[in-house]
Amino acid sequence: MTKKERYKNVLNWFEANAESAETELNYNNNFELLVAVILSAQCTDKRVNLITPALFEVFPTPEVMMESSPEVIFEYIKSCSYPNNKSKSLYGMANKLVKDYNGVVPSEINSLLTLPGVGRKTANVILAVAFNKPAMPVDTHVFRVSNRIGLTNNSKSPLETEKELVKYIPQYLQNKAHHWLILHGRYICVARKPKCEKCGISKWCKYYIKSNIIDNNS
Ligand code: SF4
Question: How many beta carbons lie within 10 A of that of residue 26, not counting itself?
Answer without folding.
Answer: 15
